From TrEMBL:
Entry protein name: ATP-dependent DNA helicase
Cofactor: Mg(2+)
Organism field: Hordeum vulgare subsp. vulgare
Gene Ontology biological process terms from the UniProt entry: DNA recombination; DNA repair; telomere maintenance
Similarity field: Belongs to the helicase family.
Length: 839
């Protein structure tokens, strides 16, 4: 069984970690070398020609893993202990790097601030760098971090904008029984005992296949590609590859598809070797009715949709993968205790399968419209689970710690640990993408150290330079540079980061420029982007604002004079561009933001044009166009309500519910009304004791007759308070009314049907004062839920602060517009003051 390690449970200073290292002393003596933090600030390690007194921890462990002639490396004989050692050493390396970023005492604090901000600070009298700026917590140069994955995704979408949609989606999975691995195993060893061999051989195979696809032109001439290495939960590496072909190499007809992709079991007599490889690597399952316990089964259905239907001819998909030819030719094979036919074959390319002897799924994906989902899938990052303790959130002040999110609940397998120790690249993209800076005059990022003198920082010649300002400089010097848009510049010029200058390219290899996105609400920065996207050869910021010899007062004014922002057209362009790389939920949020802040006039036209993009995620479960529109409208309504606006004010299609009634209920209300009541909870009524029954009848009398009252259920632990709550909740909900169950603690809330903490349900703020209010608006779904609620239950109220209860009281009086306690609601408090410690 491969050893799996968690980054979250490894602390270099802990007794457990030290003990594990001592247990490994038989294979590897203790070592005190530390990682060199300098390498974390660049995309690459320091140049080998530069002299260094130390090697990094990664380089040191890489050295210890090498196989050398006539020299026994005992580490490689460790079996399970070797697996554990590999995981622990990589976790040690990564933990040191993450700690270097997160602990100020162990790092030279690097700060960044806007150039104009530095000048303003100096004028204000501040001269020390450690008193201003913002800390860089987890840079985008940290491989696998959220910012790095987002950056790679945006780079991929820039390639799509330049070269078009991908044509092939290929997934290659490591075969641990490759001959190159098994022939190097020692007697008694299994592939899992040598993760170093698995990592090395897989890397060699992966590079070989990339060369075959790109340089060897196996499918034709490749215009661009991206590939990502991931690791399965069981530890084996696999590769996701997306190829964008040049026009003459694209596949367009069913015959083209059949020429490169097969989804059938080949004839065993004619193609004996290929037949055996397909049976070994390319058959899915069995699952479904043949094996309901298969891991791919979700709610009784295979999540990969096997077995597929028979099909006599290949059909091009409509916004989906193609439907490949799967003829019912009578061919059957028995595998894993079941007879499988062509319906179970995973699409493959015969030549690649025979060449690499492993699972290689080849799909034609050119017919998929929202290609961003393909790229989002391959850049999803490592498997992990996110969780948090309430105390941690309070201690962090509500701040989301990106380093902790990356580290917590992340699992590393031995092959992945070795792969990363060896420094093998996890991502690849061609052509490369250069992110172009976009900033207003004197508002660009400047890096400086904590104790730098800010006057010296500003005085540096490089401090006033950026990609954009040097683009202006090149246009002033060279006439041929003026023929290019800003985003086209990297295709002809190379950016020298160290010297902060553009240099003419000397070879044919070029980059794609990606101009960073700007939101219309950003004002001048957005209009600067519009100008840079349309005007060639600008020599300065003022040159961009000059129209017919007249200098405009702002970038927006220049856009208006040039006819670039008929206002609604600009908003339309913004939505169109965002649709290329943003998910539908983000598009819906952007649309709602435009409605509230951007004063659009042709809202209905904007809605009609971009509805398809905003409902892409809902199409997976819904095909009815009217229903899709209503689902998007419901989301837009909720977003507008969160901003204090009403959807009826914007002239959008009428929002109706499934019964054709107007004004669909708020999401919070709908969810509470759809709560299913268990029969066992209804049966509790017959088992209530005398005191419980008296309380039940009294409370229900006030609920059914809509009489206002506040109750308190008192009793030591174990006397049946929760039992009574369950009976009340079941009875009220069975009548079609809304009952809200809350408790002070999450544990107490979890034992009540649909229970939540009071802070979560009532939106009670963490910091309370004598006049605090719950943080929902009168137009919000939470407010509507509380208005319609017939019963409110708050258990363990004795454990909460008095101010929290008073906050709810004031908020209920406000939304109910009633001066009675808790707005005249029927409220049931419960708890045991005997458990409260005396002061």
């Amino acid at each position: 069984m491969p050893y799996i390690g968690s980054v979250a449970d490894t602390n270099q200073d802990s007794v457990d970690y030290s003990t594990r290292q001592e247990n490994q002393a038989c294979v590897f003596p203790s070592d005190d070398n530390e990682d060199n933090p300098v390498e974390d600030f660049g995309d690459n390690e320091m140049n080998a020609t530069n002299s260094r007194k130390f090697v990094s921890a990664r380089e040191y462990y890489c050295f210890k893993l090498q196989v050398r002639k006539k020299l026994l490396n005992i580490i490689l004989f460790g079996g399970s202990l070797f697996q554990q050692w590999a995981v622990d050493m990589y976790i040690k390396i990564e933990t040191m790097r993450l700690d270097w970023y997160s602990k100020p005492v162990n790092q030279k604090v690097i700060r960044a601030d806007l150039y104009q901000g530095l000048v303003d600070t100096i004028i204000a009298g501040e001269s020390r760098g450690d008193r201003i700026g913002k800390r860089i917590v987890l840079p985008r140069t940290f491989p696998g971090g959220d910012r790095d994955m987002q950056r790679m995704f945006l780079y991929a979408m820039a390639i799509v904008q330049r070269w078009g949609k991908p044509d092939y989606f290929i997934t290659m999975t490591c075969n641990p029984y490759w001959e190159e691995i098994t022939q190097e195993l020692l007697p008694g060893q299994l592939p899992q005992d040598r993760p170093d061999l698995v990592a090395r051989v897989y890397r060699a195979k992966q590079r070989s296949m990339m060369d075959l696809l790109t340089k060897g032109k196996h499918f034709g001439e490749v215009a661009a590609y991206v590939h990502v290495t991931e690791f399965q939960k069981r530890g084996l590496p696999h590769e996701h590859i997306l190829l964008i072909m040049k026009a003459k190499s694209k596949i367009r007809t069913p015959d083209d598809y059949d020429g490169v992709i097969s989804a059938e079991i080949p004839d065993k007599k004619k193609y004996h070797v290929l037949h055996d490889l397909v049976v070994k690597h390319m058959l899915h399952g069995p699952c479904g009715a043949l094996k309901k316990s298969c891991p791919c089964m979700i709610d009784g259905q295979c999540r990969f949709h096997y077995p597929r239907d028979f099909c006599d001819a290949t059909l091009q998909g409509k916004d989906s993968y193609s439907i490949y030819r799967r003829r019912d030719d009578g061919v059957r094979v028995r595998i894993r205790g079941a007879e499988l036919d062509n319906r179970w074959v995973v699409p493959y390319n015969p030549f690649l399968l025979m060449t690499y002897n492993c699972h290689i799924n080849v799909e034609a994906c050119s017919s998929i419209k929202p290609v961003k989902y393909l790229f989002k899938y391959i850049y999803k990052g490592h498997d992990k689970a996110s969780f948090a303790f309430e105390q941690d959130i309070i201690n962090d002040g509500g701040i989301i710690n990106k380093i902790r999110q990356y580290r917590d609940a992340r699992y590393i397998s031995p092959p992945e640990a070795i792969y990363r120790i060896f420094g093998f690249k996890m991502f690849g993209v061609s052509p490369s993408v250069l992110q172009l800076q976009l900033h207003l005059p004197n508002i660009h990022t400047v890096a400086f150290k904590a104790h730098d003198n800010l006057e010296d920082v500003v005085a540096r010649p490089s401090s006033s330079k950026s990609m954009l300002t040097e683009y202006f400089e090149m246009n002033q010097k060279y006439l041929h540079a003026r023929k290019l848009l800003y985003r086209e510049f990297p295709e002809h010029y190379r950016w020298i980061a160290g010297g902060k200058k553009w240099q003419t390219r000397k070879n044919k290899k070029s980059q794609i420029g990606r101009l960073v996105h700007a939101h219309p609400a950003e004002g001048e920065r957005y209009y600067l982007r519009v100008l840079l996207s349309h005007l060639r050869g600008a020599t300065s910021f003022d040159d961009l604002k000059a129209v017919n010899g007249k200098l405009c007062g702002s970038f927006r004014e220049a856009c208006e004079h040039l006819g670039l922002i008929e206002h609604d057209r600009t908003l339309d362009d913004c939505m169109t561009e965002a649709a290329t790389f943003q998910m539908p939920c983000a598009l819906r949020r952007l649309f709602a933001t435009i409605l509230v802040f951007c004063e659009a006039t042709q809202i209905r036209q904007l809605w009609d044009k971009h509805l398809a993009s905003m409902c892409e995620d809902y199409r997976r479960t819904q095909s009815n166009e009217v229903a899709l529109e209503q689902m998007v409208l419901r989301d837009i309504r909720d977003l507008l309500q969160s901003m204090g606006k009403d959807i009826k004010s914007y002239g959008l299609p009428v929002l109706v519910d499934i019964y054709g009634n107007y004004d669909v209920e708020y999401k919070e209300v709908t969810e509470e009304r759809q709560v299913k009541v268990d029969q066992e909870h209804l049966d509790i009524f017959s088992r209530l004791n005398t005191e419980q029954l008296a309380g039940f009848n009294d409370i229900m009398d006030h609920v059914t007759n809509q009489k206002r009252q506040i109750f308190f259920v008192d009793g030591p632990g174990g006397t049946g308070k929760t039992y009574l709550y369950k009976a009340l909740l079941a009875k009220v909900r069975s009548m079609g009314l809304i009952a809200i169950a809350t408790a002070t603690s999450g544990i107490a809330a979890s034992i009540m049907p649909r229970g939540r903490t009071a802070h979560s349900r009532f939106k009670i703020p963490i910091k309370l004062t004598h006049n605090s209010m719950c943080s929902f608006t009168k137009q919000s779904g939470t407010a509507e839920l509380l208005k319609q609620a017939s019963l409110l239950i708050w258990d363990e109220v004795a454990m909460t602060k008095r101010q929290a209860v008073e906050t709810l009281d004031r908020s209920l009086q406000d939304i109910m517009e009633c001066a009675l306690p808790f707005g005249g609601k029927v409220v049931v408090f419960g708890g045991d003051f005997r458990q409260v410690l005396p002061l």
